[in-house]
Hints:
Elements: H1 6-18, E1 23-26, E2 43-44, H2 56-76, E3 85-89, H3 92-107, E4 115-119, H4 120-126, E5 134-138, E6 142-143, H5 146-156, E7 164-167, E8 170-176, E9 185-191, E10 196-202, E11 205-207, H6 213-218, E12 227-233, E13 236-237, E14 249-252, E15 265-268, E16 274-277, E17 281-283, H7 291-306, H8 319-333, H9 335-343, E18 356-357, E19 361-367, E20 378-382, E21 385-389, H10 399-412, H11 436-445
Parallel strand pairs: 1-7, 3-14, 11-21
Antiparallel strand pairs: 2-6, 3-5, 4-5, 8-9, 9-10, 12-17, 12-19, 13-16, 13-18, 15-16, 20-21
Amino acid sequence: MVGAGILGLALANVISSLCKSKITILEQEAKPALHTSSRNTGKVHAPFIYHPEKKRVWAKAALYGYQFWKNYCEANKIPFEEDGVLEVATDADSAKILSFHLDWGIKNGLNYDEIKLLDQNEVKMIEPHVKCHQAILCKKDASVDYGQITRLLANHFLNNDREVKIATLSKVINIKTDRNLDLPGIIEYQNMDGNAVRQMKFDFLINASGSNALNVMNTTKIEHGYQDLFFLGEYWIAPSKYNNLTRRSIYSIPQFHQFPFLDPHWIIRTNGHREIGPNACPVFSPYGYDKLNNLKEFFPKLYKLTLGEHRINKSILRKEMFNLVATEALSSVSKRYMIKRVKKFLPSIEAKDFTIRGTSGIRANIIDKNGDFISSPIFKLHNNVLHILNYNSPGATGVFPIAYALVFKLVDKGILRYNNNGIEQRKLTNLTPFDEKLIENCRKEIEVEFK
């Protein structure tokens, strides 16, 4: 396995529980969960933003993922705040989208008492400081600390009998495979504390390295038409005077519907912070949190996009993309502009009160040769390696249902084998509590496709 983020650790958890496997996870950082797994909004999302037919798999993953995390957090005594969310429309045009979301939420499995449409007067009754035309109130939406959860998942492997090892400071530099699946593959990785290059044989490899997944896949020399674009999501922490401004997180309808981004929100975190964010400022590296790193990676990234082996055509430079880049770059440079976007529905906040930045995170989006964004995760199976690209939605919310779906698929293809000729669902102390009905729902309703 490559990557000790929340996706890699969820997969290792499921595989080691159900199958006969010895697992080694290569992680290039000194600790698990130092990037996207810890740098996010911390929301367990309800599935009302997914089209019930076009996005059925991701809707079901989010629906069942909610219960997975609720079970897990209760079993391990960590915060799972069922605080709900309000999605607001500030004008009549965006209110039309709310009607779709309400219908999608019901079709995706939410109950009528879990999601409803409110007019502006009804909103005022529950959130007096919110200004909007209409809103959706969804009660089945929660806040967690995914970084804490991911670190706990990693610690489980140190305290039980399953054969899972995490090798930190191990950066993958090359992967060699053969069409003959009976032959082991070879992965070369650099030991970052001593820069020594080591080799390891594997029967099957999963590349779950998040924002770096395409770079890892490129070491295998697979032919493909993908490029990745990176977007930095920044946050501002609200002062304590705003702690009682709302009872729940407030989201707005995205400004750019053609791109898979969200406008800045008002976020309530489990640590008590209220934050504004994220935006989506273009950067040039999966680790481009600072200006120096981005400057260093600017020309290499520009070469890859325009002249490299997997270059794309000029359609990425279309007007919509320019508008997105300009708007999000402005929100990064100007605190006032970013907070103004939230001020549309929370008019009482003032930009001058926000003086502390929150923890930023990076989202990697895959685009095709035409410069079009790919909205769903990509599961590319080549020889004896599964590459997971573009895993943004359903993100951390749906990671366990997706992990189960992937393992079921790999078993069906004969790549993995169940323990004792069947599914052994062990309930280990302080480990993920297995709910047989929930797992069976994942088996029946979540079917992932390999490319």
